[in-house]
């Protein structure tokens, strides 16, 4: 018996030792090839990647097809939606003889829309630049790039962190394993989406169409930022998201504010009051039943939250605000609740072109984040019911003259598409292998987080494919994703490759 135990423990240590050696091989392959990996990344970032730009978004997909073919990934193809204007999914596969399990690696190659005028001096969303730090702090733009580059430096471009870094981390991890002569323990599939930032409108259709090709034991979603403490994290779910656009009406033509002020109601004021009625002074949403259908966190999930280091005070200083919106609630507690955010308000002009007018309308976009238990259509309806309760006439169209004369407060409400929140159970045994694999790449304890504050199209994976998923973020938390000056810290990019490789080498 003792002898058997000895043999078993030797066997285990041999496996562990081999894995450590394997990871060292990956690490040194990556270090030797940083210049070429970086140059491929830059070529990819130069291709504009807003999904609505139908010509350029396809160039991104073509770039990936070439990149994957050059690495002899098999079965590389575009998974198309019925409408050919929809950005395709770029797919590829690695079939391992004798392997029974399959893991699909997901990232998206499209990015949020851009406004180049808002980017810092010398930066442009589609002209990637290397900067020796944060551009709004001590960083300066580097005109020449010599390797090895300081890994605290950052690359600025749309998609640098969200999520072309994810695509490249996955593909370079694969290349590093192959070129290092290591064996894959399970089948791998690659799935790179091109419409994520537009709400993954056709993902459901694509998953359904290619259902048999997309069977797997697990999806690894490489997207989002690491924890604010810099620690690596494995995230088990993401919040859902839904939008509403509210347009409040004033006079049919802009009116002189002197001749008509006090007499003609101002739509900006009406909209402001309406929005203000949606939250109390403690940041709680006052809309009826807003929090009612939330499924509470499990005991394991609550415990996991306790293990996450508190970064709130530090973050407040960095972000630049004094007090949290929800009185006394930590960041982690807050993102485990549904939220109501105003994305923006638009009306007449300010600044050099301001005029003394009563504007004709005021528009706000509301962004509802959802947690497990919420249904996005139901959540939108709660907001609409609240608006009606405030005495508004709600319409989906431009109001007619008759409607204008019979209703003092008119709002046009447009419902955007939405996604529900999803979460993989923290008690699912498969997660333990992934946690162990990522743990091998860092000395700090890997954090296990029940949900990401942001949203991902997880509902489609669960609904169509009944899939299991885990989210492995790699980007620095201060990456400005979705905004101007998006960037990735090089260390996060390099470590992202190591992390993806460790997962590709894990044994279930
Ligand atoms: Zn993303």
Looking at this protein, list some descriptive labels.
binds zinc ion, 34% helix, 2 domains, alpha/beta, Alpha-Beta Plaits, single chain, six-stranded mixed sheet, 508 residues, Aminopeptidase
- CATH level-four homologous superfamily name of the largest domain: Zn peptidases
Characterize the overall form. Answer: globular
Poorly predicted sequence stretches spanning 5 or more consecutive residues: 4-18
Bound molecules: zinc ion
Using the coordinates above, name the CATH class of the largest domain. Alpha Beta
- Estimate percent helicity: 25-40%
Proportion of beta-strand residues: 15-25%
> Quaternary arrangement of the chains shown?
single chain
Query: What radius of gyration results from the CA coordinates?
Result: 25 Å
Query: What is the straight-line distance between the termini?
Result: 26 Å
Structural class: alpha/beta
Counting H and I runs of at least 4 residues, what is the number of helices?
15
Largest sheet: 7 strands, mixed
> How many individual β-strands?
21
Here the CATH topology of the largest domain equals Aminopeptidase
- Give the averaged pLDDT, no decimals: 94
The CATH architecture of the largest domain comes to: 3-Layer(aba) Sandwich
- Number of domains as seen in the coordinates: 2
